[in-house]
Amino acid sequence: MGERKWRQAESLLQSMGTRLQEGMVPSKIFNDPEIFELEKERVFTKAWVFLGHESEIPNPGDYVVRYIVDDSFIVIRDEDSNIQVFFNSCSHRGMQICNVEMGNTSHFRCPYHGWTFKNNGKLVGIPFGNEVYGKDGLKKDQWGLRCAPKFDCYNGLIFACLDANAVSLDEYLGDFKWYLDIYLKKSEAGMEVIGAPQRWIVDADWKLGADNFIGDGYHTATSHRSTVDVGVLPVPGANFHKNGVQVYADPGGVGLITLPPQSFMGYPESIVESMKRSLKPEQFRLLSGEHFQNQYSLFQTHGGVFPNLSFLNAPGSIKPGGPPIPYLTIRIWNPIGPGKMEVWSWFLVEKDAPEWFKEASYRAYVLSFGSSGTLEQDDTENWRSITRVAKGTMAKNHFLNYQMGMATGMQPLSDWPGPGVAYPIAYIEANQRAFFAKWFQYMCQA
Ligand code: FES
Ligand SMILES: [Fe+2]
């Protein structure tokens, strides 16, 4: 029955195997109901998915509500300051127990029959309990809120996994932790999220966001050219994204873009000093440009972790022609239907940064990659278009080209200081090929 149920998706996957090795990806996977259902079952129930950042819930009782596809979770700091991830569903009859997106509470009281749970998930109150279940009739300790099968944190990032048999988060993130640290350990004080994440729904496949952030330096010269022309991006020319290094270290990849020496993208002196103490020397050498013999310095980095977490650390301008102000955004592309996703975008900043910088950095982010950001809108239109095309009949036999770097036989760097496979240019599609190979592997595991 299972196989018949997914017949079209399975045959699409079958046709994909060898083509993928040639750098070809079928258009149809970007808008197909069966592929979407299979992704729910084989990717999003198996992989670790990002839910939020510890700084969003700093105090006991603080919580936020987050999602893995359709499943809603309460991510909460309990009275003992432990982070918990509860399935947002009452253990009596399944009603959603928490109906607001964030807050602080000692208890959740179900609106249906009033079962009451402490913020550590324990069931503590049942209306008319003794009368309707008898004294000791219902074992309260067996009817607490259900936890996500697995959840854990890395450097402040909170993840959950729906597969109780999955590897640990530490093992899952593997070699990619080295790159995550570059984002998250820029200051000894750590990072904090400012404001609530922005959310918006886009008629586009979630994989297109992941594909773009993990490796698509190539689109910037065309898609974002106007932002360069009008001076809202502090770069000398539209091909600013070409030079750099692209690295894949399973389960994620980054593009590290270089430009002639800048001063740490515009980070304040105190943060640069903090970075120096917090990062490994070889990581700091990358940021400072020493690794590139001081001919270039790291200008911006973009990346992604399988399946749907992406990030971008880039400088923007607050006013046209103004100095660069760097910002860090983390986002997820949550699939909510075939060819449809909800984007969640967080802004993070170094906790010990000066107030003026936190404000300027937030503005630089909102102007470029918030929901109304200039670059965000450029990207969104591309992904909507690809998704719309992928829905049609012609798309059934249409394969897309992901061959950049294969034809030139480009070889990985032999002296790269970090883990993974690194190529000496940013215009290459090695990371996207690695992303789709991983997606394919998950999709083929019944
Ligand atoms: S469904 Fe929650 S108390 Fe009945
Ligand atoms: Fe873009």
Describe this structure in words.
This protein is an alpha+beta fold. The protein folds into 2 domains: 49-169, 3-layer Sandwich (Rieske Iron-sulfur Protein); 174-444, Alpha-Beta Complex (Naphthalene 1,2-dioxygenase Alpha Subunit, Chain A, domain 1), CATH 3.90.380.10. The protein is 29% helix and 26% strand. It contains 15 helices and 21 strands. Strands 12, 13, 14, 15, 16, 17, 18, 19 and 21 form a 9-stranded antiparallel β-sheet that branches. Strands 5-4-3-6 form a 4-stranded antiparallel β-sheet, with no helix packed on it. β18 (325-337) and β19 (340-350) form a beta hairpin. α8 (206-215) packs antiparallel against α15 (430-443). The two termini are 13 Å apart. The structure holds FE2/S2 (inorganic) cluster (FES) and fe (ii) ion.
| Number of helices in the DSSP assignment | 15
Radius of gyration, in Å, reads 23 Å
CATH class of the largest domain: Alpha Beta
CATH fold-level assignment of the largest domain: Naphthalene 1,2-dioxygenase Alpha Subunit, Chain A, domain 1
The domain tally reads 2
The CATH architecture designation of the largest domain is Alpha-Beta Complex
How much β-strand is present in the residues?
A: 25-35%
How far the N terminus sits from the C terminus, by CA atoms, comes to 13 Å
CATH superfamily membership of the largest domain: Naphthalene 1,2-dioxygenase Alpha Subunit, Chain A, domain 1
Sum up the overall morphology in one term.
globular
Bound molecules: FE2/S2 (inorganic) cluster, fe (ii) ion
Class of secondary structure makeup: alpha+beta
**Poorly predicted segments:** none
Could you give the count of β-strands? 21
User: Biggest β-sheet: count, sense, barrel?
Assistant: 9 strands, antiparallel
Helix content: 25-40%
Mean pLDDT equals 94
